[in-house]
Amino acid sequence: MYLTLSLPPLCSAHKNTFADGVELREYAPIVWASTNVSDVKYGSAVTIGFERLFSYISGANEEGQHIEMTAPVRTRLLAGAGPFCKDTFTVSFMVPFELQVGLRTHMTLRYSPDRVLIAQTQALIKTLDAEKVEYDASVFYAAGYDAPFRILNRHNEIWIPAGSVSKPL
């Protein structure tokens, strides 16, 4: 069973494909509802953040309004100072298009094992280096497009901002 979800609009004129299926994309401006979580593990941070945001869109908000679920669930990772320090994870849901009218700021308010996430990020960086694509590796995003209960054939992506090189993670 697949859910019909709102997805962020892609500026298709600015999409390039490189080796290993790596794509350079440009998205239209998007408003995200976000929550910050400090943790040492990606999986637990995403679970905490997802539960906070899901509660919010399920009516635990100032207006008591139920808000449509969107995809992807975006998680920004800002690494801590050392290997045993907590990282800052910003878990975000895209605000549905009909609610984005007039919003100009970022609103602040599943699952891939940590080792798989790290390996996929390293593979992406290797491809970007081979293709001589400039990027900022001081931060990256994990984007999950499936419901948390979906176990097989999940659609997950790693996003690294394009721009000047800041290496490595």
Residue-averaged pLDDT, rounded?
A: 77
Structural class: alpha+beta
Biggest sheet overview: 6 strands, mixed
Strand segment tally: 8
Q: Could you give the order of strands across the largest sheet? A: 6-3-5-4-7-8
Q: Which geometry do the CA atoms define? A: globular
Helical stretch tally: 2
Walk me through the structure.
- Helices cover about 20% and strands about 20% of the residues.
- Strand 1 (about 15) and strand 2 (about 25) form a beta hairpin.
- It is globular, with a radius of gyration of 16 Å.
- It is of the alpha+beta class.
- The strands form 2 sheets. It has a 6-stranded mixed β-sheet, covered by helices on one side. A two-stranded antiparallel ribbon has the order 1-2.
- Residues about 105-110 have low confidence and may be disordered.
- The protein contains 2 helices and 8 strands.
Structure characteristics:
20% helix, globular, 8 strands, six-stranded mixed beta sheet, alpha+beta, 169 residues, single chain
Short overview:
The protein is α+β, with helices and mostly antiparallel strands and 169 residues long.
Topology:
Blueprint: E1 16-17, E2 23-24, E3 32-39, H1 42-57, E4 73-78, E5 87-94, E6 107-108, H2 114-130, E7 140-144, E8 156-159
Parallel strand pairs: 3-6
Antiparallel strand pairs: 1-2, 3-5, 4-5, 4-7, 7-8
